[in-house]
Fold these 4 entries.
Entry 1:
Amino acid sequence: MAAFFDALQSIVPIALFYSAPLIFTALGGVFSERSGVVNIGLEGLMVIGAFSGIVFNLTFEDTLGSVTPWISILVAMVVGAIFSLIHAVAAVSFRADQVVSGVAINFLALGLGVFLTKQWYGKGQTDMVDKPFYSTDIPVLSDIPILGPLFFDGIFVTSYVAIAFAFLAWFILYKTPFGLRLRSVGEHPMAADTNGINVNRMRYIAVMISGALGGLGGAVFALTIAYNFSQATIVGQGFMSLAAVIFGKWHPLGAMGAALFFGFAQSLSVVGSGIPLLENVPAVYLTIAPYVLTILALAGFIGRAEAPKANGQPYVKGSR
Amino acid sequence: MFSNKTFNIVVPVVSVLLGLLAGAIIMLVFGYNPIQGYIALWNGAFGSSYFFGETIRQVTPYILTGLSIAFAFRTGLFNIGAEGQVIVGWLAAVWVGAAFDAPMIIHLPLALIAAALAGAIWGFVPGILKAKLGVHEVIITIMMNYIALHISNAMIREVLTDSGDSTEPIKESASLASNWLMEMTGYSRMHFGIIVALLAAFFVWFLLEKTTRGYELRSVGFNKHASEYAGMNVGGNIILAMVISGGVAGLAGAMEGLGTFGYMPTHSAFTNLGFDGIAVALLGGNNAFGVIIAAFLFGVLKIGSLNMPTAAEVPSELVEIVIALIIFFVASSYIIRWAILKLKKEGK
């Protein structure tokens, strides 16, 4: 029992730590896809978020002091939202194939990020930031027996912000008129249009929310895990988030659950060798576990998922 | 006046021009001379027989990954998994190339077949899941990419070597490399794979356009329900399409394993051949001939860009931005069509 508890105690904080960026980004994906715009570009949005978060942090660490990481992630959100406009223009106004324009976003973000890094820092990667997020013990709560060490000891506050955001997203999407409009645009754009909802404007807003959250996810990843920006900072976390969106059945809390699960799976591959039960399992099985499980989940072993009906289709006024 | 066929040529050409123009503007903004930049790019691709050989070497796998993705597109599927299929194909080719001894006439085809087979298996999984369970192939192929990357690294470290970072070199009898081609191109790494790539392009064109099976594959991609009604086996055709697409991408891996490198290193990140193949397929209008031209263009851009930092001090990543913008413009072809028609009208 004690060994099991020790194992949990080494896994849970790391799982939460790896999950946070995925939760933010997956929530972004939920907003975009709920409005009917497929967003394969989440990976690129994370890249831009990581890049702008790191650059801002490095540039302003002396002037802003201890609030630097917080301002950095806010800046990354703004930059992410602006960058996602490119996807919105292509997918909504130019009626581009949304998967293809998402692919273009991924290429563009990485090209731009590395180009500007070389331009401004003269090398392929930035310096390490001096002001990242640090893990903290949460006062009072960390003194609770059993739960305290598990959830509140050496934890990144960003993990809790991520979970709070998931509930906020659920509230916005399911309890507000705005959320209802956004979802209706993704299910039946023509009916929404007939009811006086501006379909294209709604989709622009949804894509920009996904840009802000994707940027946030990327910046949180960069400032809690990577500490710098290079070509190899964001490698697949955006795609994992996209999987979390689908795994979580396009529901904010489902996406959060899936992201937590992926974080858990990733933490197993990080700490697995130290856990008695897992130490003999070859590392590669733990590494590929999240991907294999995603496939199994999608293949229906965890229940069928129903995508928003109009997902991926440009809306052309007057067409049926 | 402007038929669909004309648009299919005009849109990619306009997209490339817009992409290059945007690249020039970026160079201007950052204080570089775009003319010098593009001259450096041109010289980096064509400046000597060595550069030209390297360009062809890069074009070779691009043709194959582009074909793979174009083939899937034509049958209504989006194969983002070419990347993983390249990796398993590379591994299979190198494994057969290094582990066996046989005369070249048997060994080389065997290694190529192994690569195609490995890629085909990697395409079969998303194919059967799509056909039988209706799971979207995009997300499955993305997951299969990561599985391929991690498994092949583990195979190289644990099975093929004793925790080494790359496999044994392949035997001479499985190699696509040729001294003749290398000498002719100033000792570039150009190899006979280009012939394999061109044959594959012919195969894809012939299969899709000239055979009943190809007609069925396209028909299923165009309208599943109508095809079903017409008595076609929709599921079977989806699986076959993914298997062929995967097999062709697997061959692209063989080009790297048997031609360019002659071994396989462990990869810390993706090769990007599969992802670049998406760009090639889109720009090539998803047809075999277009793919060859698009692969050539991207090969020129990629290899040429390597000369840009030394000759014009422009970071080579500029070309990545140009390629991204070209995809963006191709994807947004609706607006290009609209603009051309508008210009046409005002001209009258």
Entry 2:
Amino acid sequence: MFESVLVANRGEIARRVIRTVQRMGLRAVAVYSEADADLPFVREADEAILLGPADPAQSYLDAGKVLEAARLSGAQAIHPGYGFFSENAGFARAVIEAGLIWIGPSPEAIERMGDKINARNLMEAAGVPVAAGTREPVTDLEQAVAAAAGIGYPVMVKTAGGGGGIGMGVAHEEAGLARAFEQASRAAVRFGGTPAILLERYVERARHVEVQILGLTDGTVLALGERDCSVQRRHQKIVEETPSPGVTPELRERMLAAAVRAGEAVGYLGAGTVECLVDTDKQDFVFLEMNTRLQVEHPVTELVTGLDLVEQQLRIAAGEKTEISVAVHGHAIEFRVYAEDPRRFFPGPGKIEVWEEPSGEGVRVDSGYTRGNTVTPFYDPLMAKLCVFGQTRAEALERARKAVASFQVEGPKNNLPFCAELLEHSDFTDGNYDTGLVSRMRA
Amino acid sequence: MAEVHAEMVANVWKVLVAEGDTVEEGDTLVILESMKMEIPVLAEDEGVISQLKVAEGDVIQEGDLIAVIE
């Protein structure tokens, strides 16, 4: 096992990775921007190195600076967290070429799954069901119109390079396609680097369900259950739970087997996620994409399996042979606490005047901020993740209500009132919801 | 005369109009970016942009004046 790990990320995920690194007796090195100098992750690391200004391009996304920080600190391995460099094959290669250990799948696996079009074609070849969509990148509107006519409206327009929901849009008819295409193209260039666009059939009332996989050093790929991420706004997740209330045991078995096949098809190593769209009426699913990194919502899987996924990532990256028996029990739900107004979901950065996290049996909070910190407009709005565990879904919901009510945040706008509202909404409490739930609540 | 103010702390990502331009209601004046979200700022009246107070790359605070439409 290596002795020190540089965490190439910020906020809650940097803090969460640092916690496991230190628990394992290893040294944790943080890197940070000027805007983040006062955040807990900087203080809690064994060493912290300033990268540069707030703009990610000059700090967290400056590969030269991150690698230089690793050299200066003597870090032997780099954990990318999620976002930033986590799915950047070029950076993963640069880490390996610098003689360091990349905590993640191989650059080749990142490349093959990072291009959503390639990934879809690869999955189809591996016998995993995929949504109807474009097999080649779409680069102009004329191609998009022709492709959409072939697929049939409504279509989802998204960037082939990914980008966490940014730039995604649904076109219900040809008139709306130009706008969706332009929006996705702009986002592709700004956030994804590649201008390629992908179109696929959009299912109106579907659930977004993903499977957590773990590729071990002996080539085995394990499936650690699923997560239902259907509570979304602007195609970004707000709440995730496991097990999914909308998946039957028979469908679960098929989805987990498909996720294992997906992992095996790319020789996957470490933690990854296979995202699917589930048509609950038909109890059927299609592959959407694979995320070759740790997910924001990994804690719910940890709560029901008892595993520490970051520890597994570190052990696998160190080449250790691990034997894991997967046993899932209970129910876990995560609420993303965003700095945004709870009605329109518009960003609401600001200085945190009050910050009191809930605690108690079955409650876990992964936060990136504390009282006195300022939530700035430079990064995503996630302030914390409130996770609850119960023996049953009903118990988890009850604990969630209490925890949401006792989570005190003043200063930045926050979506805790939305979480409280959701916990009283019968579609959610019945477990009978789909990706359109939030839009219907705000219609 | 209508003043257009910022609703939140944000970076000015794109400025789509110049002083002297004529705008219609609903035209996008600037695109702000905050927390990885693009927020278009729209004209709520028609008229001429008599003052434009922001430039691309600025960081503006809640309540800051963005433009004046006459």
Entry 3:
Amino acid sequence: MLMCRELAGIASDYIDGELSTGRRLSVQMHLMMCRHCRSFIGNLRASTELLRGHSSARVEQSVIDRINHCVTEALSHRPEAPDADPDSDR
Amino acid sequence: MNAHPDLDESRLVEALKRGEQAAFTEAVSTYTAGMLAVARYYVDPANAEEIVQDCWVTVIDAIRRFEGRSGLKTWLHRIVANRCKNQLRTSHREITTDFSERLEPELDSRFKASGRWATPPKLRFDESADALLENGALSDCLDKHLGHLPENQRSALILYEAHQHKSDDVCNILDVSASNLRVMLHRARQKIFLMVETFQETGEC
Ligand SMILES: [Zn+2]
């Protein structure tokens, strides 16, 4: 019988569908009986989902500006691009 | 949200191939965050910025060889990862990703010896994640805690969650085994969970 602590250890694998069938079934059995673990899984999933809507790893505009400046410089010093690229593996 | 993200991407790629400056400006602001997340997994933040900047300059020419099999984002992330790995190879720095425990100590202490909860999760999230994020203070708190995650956990979480990469891609970009990735993701998620729980309960970050 799967205990709460053990379930907490594999909760992400359950959320991501990475458990074997047997393991998944024992998690589901446990969740039917244990509201604390239901709550844990629900909360863990919701916390993770926060990242999807979140502008994760926000970058300071100054960094973007610096890179853009560099790219602009490089673009302006670039010779005319040849039509066919000899390195292409096409 | 664009209804045809693929079309949008191929339009951008064509413009990049033509060397249009506006396209580079757009691409830099769209993709730099993810590229930095990759670089910071391997090197310190100052170095990471430099590497990402170098990569963008490389992209000016390399983009002509891009064929679109992997998607622009994945391609860019791989370029950054490869450059970091090359640099590490020359400086002989080893990346350690050894996690023996799957549970965060703070969470682990909330179980009885029997393996049942002693201090169960305190809250239920009845709100959707979107509704939670509308709380600006929580969003700031999330920023702060993401900043405090170990680099490798944060990169794994950001690539997997925010950039929606498949596990295989993340393993490839970060050069980790599937099982190490699982542990990194889980450790990072537990920390975010503990952060949100504290925030919901106390309003403090
Ligand atoms: Zn339980």
Entry 4:
Amino acid sequence: MDIINNYGFVLIVVAAAVGFLMAWGIGANDVANAMGTSVGSKALTIKQAILIAMVFEFAGAYLAGGEVTSTIRKGIIDASYFVDTPELLVYGMISALFAAGVWLAFASYLGWPVSTTHSIVGAIVGFAAVGVSSDAVAWGKVGGIVGSWIITPAISGFIAFLIFQSAQKLIFDTDKPFANAKRYVPFYMGLAGFVMALVTIKKGLKHVGLDIPADQGYYIAIGIAVLVGIVGRWFISRIKLDANAQKDMQFANVEKVFAVLMIVTACCMAFAHGSNDVANAIGPLAAVVSIVESGGEIGKKAALVWWILPLGGIGIVAGLALFGHRVIATIGNGITHLTPSRGFAAELAAACTVVIASGTGLPISTTQTLVGAVLGVGMARGIAALNLGVVRNIVISWVITLPAGAGLSIIFFFMIKGIFAP
Amino acid sequence: MPINSFLGVFAKSPLKPLEDHINLVDKCSKGLLPFFQAVYAQDWKTAQETQKNISQLEKQADVIKRELRISLPVGIFMPIQRQDVLDLLTQQDKIANKAKDISGRILGRQLVIPVELQDSFMTYLKRCLDATNQATKVINELDDLLETGFKGRELRLVEDMIERLDEIEDDTDTIQISLRRSLLALEKDLNPVDVMFLYSIIEWVGELADISERVGSRLELMLAN
């Protein structure tokens, strides 16, 4: 107890610093990946992508980001083990953030798209199991995460498959693809707007002090969806038909319509990502702050201190703006045959999955949903070629993320414990 | 793993190189037109230049062929069968090879096409090149086929195109028969060795159309999977 009272401020500052590092890493690697498909399909320029990511990541983090925090904080480790020694939990959370941040930096350097969620989960499990007691870990929840390696990509792959197929049926496989694209694409935009709005209303707005009843929330979400659709329709109506589209193939023009849609899904993706992954950086940070501020008491549900969410949001945006452009640039040149229509199916599906999961509090990884969605579009015969060897490597990197995060956090935990120990 | 391996998930698409390849092949075989004009005029210098051009295009096509073969390892998931892509590529490549062989053989022997045959031979050549051109058009539809997930309206359109390709090939067969008959009538006045070579040239030119048709039917098989 003395340690927390004596070093409370130092601990908060250290936790904030490593939390920022973690958020930075998320922005530099994960967000860049998430924006990759838009840039790769040439629907957005790199500058536009960064701008969109900045605005919507922050919005997602701030408006819909609170829910996952509690899952990571309370679900994976049993807080009752720390009641007598709250400082251990503080050390542990700091070392977890540090471990995950370091692992993320290392993986980004090697180009591994590891899951930020799983690095933080691995790190928390690591210090709890070794530093405290293996009973302190809710192993059932960890099992659920291992299960999510299969389930999450499967869900988003399935959604992507459905979206792509519906676009095929409604637009591409018709006599007038361009006219049909103009007619139906606003509905896809509305769908994206609906999912985003719904999650924001249902889960996020509590944090900014608004509480809207459920049925009203649906109406508002539908209203926003319609609004997004109308604005989208206006943008689409400004697209000019290419002169040489007089032949019966109009797909080049259809892709232009989808490029507009792609902008909406890119926003959606950034929003979803912000809502889900900011929690990875701020969850442990919030735990540290609440313990320190209450003088060592581990509360059942600590309120987020006001500065924590913005700190995570700014960290992600800064990481993206200063580091992300390199990753995105390689993406822009690297992809072949990823057109807006295919990219959109993958991105909208991934965004939906993340947003839904974020709403239900599942700690899933954006990277996994994207990989799953890309596979789904591939299965629907949409993407010309997928490199399954790379998919396998990515899955392997997911698997080693848990032990790597755990190992690092164990090391850091004993280091920090040694530093602060009386 | 390469830098930024998430994007490595998207493998290099085989369709674009396939299109690039046949476009080159088409250009290569079209080189036969100026070549034969030079041969008719017995302007062997120009003929040599155009022949060089043909063989250069053939080499460029070979480069694409090799790259595509290397870039299609087993672990790549494609909307079309790997083996089909490679087969298609092999067929496409044969067109360029044949064009090079025809021009090379004629130039090597400075083979003169008898004046009486020149007009009908040119018609024949043009019709065969029509077939190659049609095959090129079909392959260039692959992109749009992919867009529609290889089914529906676009698929029917491509099937129609392949059917037209078959008709062109039928035409060339008819012309070939009459061309042979005309050559038979001239045979006794010509150098027998030249006649032998003329027959084989006529056959080879016909093969341009045959192989083009085979490209179409390979594609058809591919779409049937």
